[in-house]
Amino acid sequence: MAAPPSAYKDRHFLAVIGDEDSVTGLLLAGIGHVTQPPDAQKNFLVVDAKTEISTIEQAFDNFTQKRKDIAILLINQHIAEKIRNRVDTYTEAFPAVLEVPSKDHPYDPEKDSVLRRVRRLFGE
Amino acid sequence: MSGAGDREAVFPTRQSLGLMKNKLKGAETGHSLLKRKSEALTKRFREITRRIDEAKRKMGRVMQIAAFSLAEVTYAVGGDIGYQIQESAKQARFRVRTKQENVSGVFLPQFESYTTEGNNDFGLTGLGKGGQQVQRCRETYARAVETLVELASLQTAFVILDEVIKVVNRRVNAIEHVIIPRTENTIKYINSELDELDREEFYRLKKVKNNKQRDNDAKELEAASKRRGSDKENTADDPGATDILGEQEDQDVIF
Asked: In this structure, which long-range contacts are made by residues A4-11, counting pairs with CB atoms below 8 Å and at least 24 apart in sequence?
């Protein structure tokens, strides 16, 4: 039934996969976190036109499965489009994956994985 | 016979009939409770989906404003501050904690944002110029992230509720379409089987009674005929009966 408390007790951080502007802005808000060295892991990934899709997928898997301290994963919608299959098949409650708009790509509710599920459930 | 339907493997006794009746009652109670739970959850679920829809739209607007304020910063600082910020991010100032909310026995986690005081990774950003814009941008983005956190808790609640509703509905359907008919079938089977036994017993008793009656009658008849026979014998033998006191001489008793 409901997730046990251990599933989300230690989750404190937000993670971002986004273009440079979105990441910069969110880091300014103070969500950036780098774990202690030696394995300094950032909780954000800047994606530009040259970033490989496999890198994005790897970061997505890392944030959603490997790391246990992330509560919310923010991902730009146009980047989520690139790994749409991963995002759509992701159904876990923790961390919550949230598609956010970016500066260059306005928000489209039709593409959002959660809103699509809402639509499907209510048969629209 | 009703044993043809799907039923449980029980012996048709009065005890198991009682057990089955209790079970049926329990299943019906459970069914109505679960149904109510499912309805309560669905109500909550609909409310949450509506709020998600609203929040997503609000998020679109908020992020637009935030992006605009970032553009202001870029203009004011006069260069790209992205690398500087990415390099100086060390400790998260903006964090979330989770607490639980109980909706008819389902624990829905809720994210709550808080800021840790004391560490400021971007103390030097915009020191040369544009510090005010940087400050404003930070505030705007902080508000935006708060909206995002709110949305994230709604979405998590959505995912969990979705799953729980599915489980509850599955149970409701299982009880309604499998357990209750099967128990009813079992009760019918036991009843018919008990009736059958009753009839058999009744028939047996009747048979026994008949047999007894017949035996008694036969005996009586026999007795009667015997009596009559002996009477007849008596009457028949009477004339020829030896008169022990008669003139016939007794035989000598020889010792």
From this structure: A5/B100, A7/A93, A7/A94, A8/A71, A8/A94, A8/B98, A8/B109, A9/B98, A10/A68, A10/A69, A11/A68, A11/A69, A11/A70, A11/A71, A11/A94, A11/A95, A11/B96, A11/B98
Convert the pLDDT of each residue in B113-165 to its tens digit: 887 776 666 666 666 666 778 888 888 888 888 888 888 888 888 888 888 88
On the question of pLDDT at B109 being above 70, the answer is yes
Q: Model confidence at B200, in pLDDT bands (50, 70, 90)? A: very high
What average pLDDT does range B208-226 have in this prediction? 88
Cα-Cα-Cα-Cα torsion B147, A41, B81, B133, nearest 10 degrees, comes to 30
Compute the 3-state secondary structure of chain A and give helix, strand, coil in percent, each to the nearest 5.
40, 20, 45
Residue window 67-106, chain B: list those with CB within 8 Å of chain A. 67, 70-71, 81-82, 85-86, 89-98, 100, 106
Beta bridge partners of A44: A16
From the list B71, B45, B64, B58, the residue with the least C-alpha distance to B148 is B58
What integer best gives the mean pLDDT of chain B? 82
- Give the position of tokens 């009880």: B175
Q: Are A20 and B82 within 8 A, CB to CB?
A: yes
**CA-closest candidate to residue A90, choices B244, B21, B155:** B155
- For residue B195, is pLDDT > 50? yes
Nearest chain B residue to A9 by CA: give it. Answer: B98
Tokens representing A109 are: 């509710």
Q: Are strands A13-18 and A44-46 parallel, antiparallel or unpaired?
A: parallel
pTM, rounded to two decimals:
0.71
Neighbours of B216 (CB within 10 A): 10
How far, CA to CA in Å, does A38 sit from each of A35, A82, B17, B125?
9, 31, 70, 26
d(CA B27, CA A85): 42
Q: Chain B residues with CB inside 8 Å of A119's CB?
A: none
Q: Tell me how far apart the alpha carbons of residues B15 and B22 are, in angstroms, rounded to a whole number.
A: 11
- What stretch of H or E contains B44? helix B14-77
Dihedral of alpha carbons B143, A4, A1, A112, sign:
positive
Q: How far apart are CA A29 and CA B145, in angstroms?
A: 7
